[in-house]
């Protein structure tokens, strides 16, 4: 049984990570047909990618959208978590479901719904702002889940003791609650940014004409022979960069021994 489990684990990891290794190798493959294994390695595609204006502009658009959506998600997700975890009221469970639901819906359904809402109901022209709002709808879920989980582990004893000693609510939050929540907020923010940065389906329906995020740029240039090597480089960079927020978020989410402090 142990051998069977290790074999299944190895096969599962191979299915997940072997294609990623191929992308990394193709980013330094001198052969434009991407013969495998590479006959010769080169860094030429990396230098071309660094000066590709389309990729750089798309990267900046993705960063802008990700940072703005994460900021909105941190504020609204944290407020929602406090409201649902610290207070009891009629309809509490349905409200919690409504907050979590956007991340469970198919992306194409969310994209079409938001597109119709922006253009038909609100009369907004599609652009970066509409994409940021769209990303925030599912980024809130990530922050909400992280903060709720931390609030459940924290309890309310320390805050009640602080209030009994005569401190105000704001002082209690600043000196007691926030230090214990800090790592959960950072973990939620990192995951929210990564989720926004990689999103393509909802973005396609909510981003303005002529604008591209990095995932959309990759998709549009993936099947162009002269751009394929650069696409592999951009994908390799994303693979390497994506491990950082996920790793940090995992470490921070599991940091309970120090009360959530960094």
Automatic annotation (TrEMBL):
InterPro entries: Bact_Polyamine_Transport (IPR051789), MetI-like (IPR000515), MetI-like_sf (IPR035906). The chain crosses the membrane at residues 54-83, 95-114, 126-148, 184-208, 228-248. Residues 59-249 form the ABC transmembrane type-1 domain. It is found in: Cell membrane. It is a multi-pass membrane protein. It comes from the Bacteria. The keyword Nuclease does not apply. The keyword Transmembrane applies. Keywords: Cell membrane, Membrane, Transmembrane, Transmembrane helix, Transport. PANTHER family: PUTRESCINE TRANSPORT SYSTEM PERMEASE PROTEIN POTI. Belongs to the binding-protein-dependent transport system permease family. CysTW subfamily. This is ABC transporter permease. It comes from Amycolatopsis melonis.
